[in-house]
User: What shape does this take?
Amino acid sequence: MVRIIDEEIIGSFGNGDFSKADLLYHKYKDEVFSFFRYRGVITQDAEDMTIEVFERVFSGARGFDTSRPFRPWFYQIARNALTDYFRRNTKRRIVDIDDFDFTDETNEYEQEEYQILYKSLKKLSAEDQDLILMAKFHQFPYSEISQHLSVSESVVKTRVHRIIKKLTSIYNEMMT
Amino acid sequence: MKKSDEFKIGRMLEEMPLQKTGSIMNTKFDHLKERYRTPNKSISRVKWIIYYAAASISIFLLAFLLASYLQQKRIEQLQISNAYMRSLLIQTLPANQAVDNQLKVFDYLINNENATYTADELIEIYENTDDINLKLASLELFDKFRSQDRVLLFLSEQLQVEESPLLLIPLINFISKEKSRKGIEVLMNLKKDQNIHKAVRDHLNDLES
Assistant: This one.
């Protein structure tokens, strides 16, 4: 049901009607901002890139097929923006853990746990980080991830399981 | 224990807090939205084409008007230049004693001026010169204006007053070719004249026979 609404909004963009742009923005702005932040983009750049993603959505809305789900298309745009960013910024600033905001929804103990989790994530390869974040944090269905990676769903499940195992191991090492 | 750790890590990943965007982002988004909030892109494209076409037509029209104006100005300048040249030639005509020079002036007048004006100028020159050669040359040039009544009338009058047989004979030829009533009348009167030069009388007789 939610998806249908998203696709309808994009369809209206294609017809030059941007009156519902705010709905889409407020629904996805923190999600796409987090997408960039958890992949190591500094705050200011992540903000600019978030706006850039919405701009690409606006300009590409006319060519969007409304019979297809919006979210994978949206994340593909974010992913392309991220690739461009890393290509442009080969000597990018290293993101400090203190830059992250874990204060809103967690207590002090949990904040520390999340900081260690983030540090553990950074020890994984870029591909593994992307896959685990897509599967767990962004909660993309395995079927969509398998389509994106052009592998079977069972392969995705196995990879995710293996990455979690590895991440747990790193996490436990850092805790001790 | 280890399994529960993996489960916990999975759960933590799912519940990782969203990073919040700053309020400045909303302003940036509003600017972005404003840029895209156009009624209909296809209409604006059509409008753009219309504006472009209107601008092109306006430029073409302005260029055409400018070209017309410049051409008109050039024609006026040429007319002024011609008038000046004509005036200069007429003024210098008496000073040009050589017949060749005077004929060049006539040639110029014939080629560059309207027929009525040139015929008038020729009549004036013919009347005011005593040079027989110039008068003979003028008679040749009058041939180009023989369709004009004023020329025929003028030369008929000249036939009545001219005394030199050198001019009378070409005058007779000119008038006789036209065969106008006035011309024939003048020729008949001339034939009756007892004081007429013998060569002229002989010529008239030859023409009559």
